[in-house]
Amino acid sequence: GGGQTGGGQGRNAFKSRLATANVPRWPLASDGIPSAGADGARRDQRSADSQRGGDAFWEDDDEQVQNNGVQILLVRHGQSTWNAQGRWQGQADMPLSSLGVAQSALAAIRLAGGNPTIHGEDLGIRNITAVYSSNMQRAVQTASILAQQAELGPVIEDERLRERSVGEWSGLTYEEVQRKWPGYLKRRLLPPSYETDDHVLPRVFAALENVRKMQPGGRVVVVCHAGVIYAVEAYLKAKARRRNPQRRYRIGNLGTRWIIWDGKGFRLGK
Fold first, then answer.
1. What is the pTM of this model?
2. Annotated catalytic residue 121
């Protein structure tokens, strides 16, 4: 079920592989980061409220994966109380807001739509075999709502799926960071305790390795965080030698990305 960190040798070996894989060094956005100032915060809030960031969510990936391949749907949790306030969040363990609960319930209906025994027809994501989650409460709350509605059994928590730490910026708004750390955001500088991709990716991929080993041939929902999903997506884009791997498309609350284990390694899905 996870929650255990891999050994030091495994982490070091993985870091060595990352070092040669052209992984973007500038870490991508983390939970609770407004786009730019108050206007950006309002734009992000409207996006979260309307779920535009996740409108493509719950689109099924109908690719046929052979040889016990595993399809994993990475899902960002519902809106948290600090997301609603436009605060950098990181590993601060904030609960869902009332909107976040409603977003999760709406997504759960879509997920349950893939189970004809619940709705009588195939409307959503088909044949999900398990739901995994970060052990942070905003993710666990989201995953529990999804799993209960879709009758998928208990949520399997794994601490390795936690959001990246944003260090000294946790709890601050965009404006507060600008005031207390002048010039940092414009120049893409980070506070000393910020957890970069080189530290995030080994633990996250160790968790995903556990999922694919425990769910051979399965289709799995993994509820985690924006910073985790952006880091995984950028790494897999770079690995596939895609152009502009650091370019990202915003993941709203309950937004998703498919990744595939095809027997040779992880890659992005459709």
1. 0.77
2. no
